[in-house]
Amino acid sequence: MPRLRRLPRRFYRRDPRVLAPELLNKVLVRGARRGRIVEVEAYAGGADPGSHAYRGPTARNASMFGPPGHLYVYVSYGMHHCANIVAGEVGVGVAVLLRALAPLSGVDEMYAARAGARLERDLCSGPGKLCQALGIAREDDGADLVRADRGISLGDDGTAPPREPGVSLRIGLSPGRGDEMPWRWYVPGDPNVSRGPGRFPVAGAPRRS
Which residues lie closer than 8 Å to 114 by C-beta, 6 or more apart? Predict the structure, then answer.
């Protein structure tokens, strides 16, 4: 397994729409479990009606307004945990949702945590699935990826983001709630990318230069 370089705080201190495609192919680590990020979505705070931070800070989203490089973890539909990486400056409330990982190691532990998964590509092919596979839950809200204070970190093994990532609308947003923003990026052709609406590229959407 290649040695990972842990990413510094300044890496995260950017607009989430800039950070998101740069997170592709980085490696999320929890203990022996590692997965390569293959799908992300950007959420732009007060400028984005699809964001939890659109109406300002609350007890639920407080971590989004904290320092960059921390996790914001919330519960979706009362049962699925979703993990976001806080971006930008303190007080802004912007983040990048981790939508899918490609498992790299600790696969047996992932299967144990995801009893219903039959294929390896089913382990982390969605935001709730990847949190379950890596054991990320609400108590990990606020975890610092730079210091790995709760055993969760993000690293670079030298694999660059795709030069031309897939780009699409974000998944699961209702009309008028940011559903028109092409702020989802993914690794083209990767079998671990989540299925569902908005999977295909949007004509004219911005790409990484």
Answer: 122, 123, 129, 132, 133
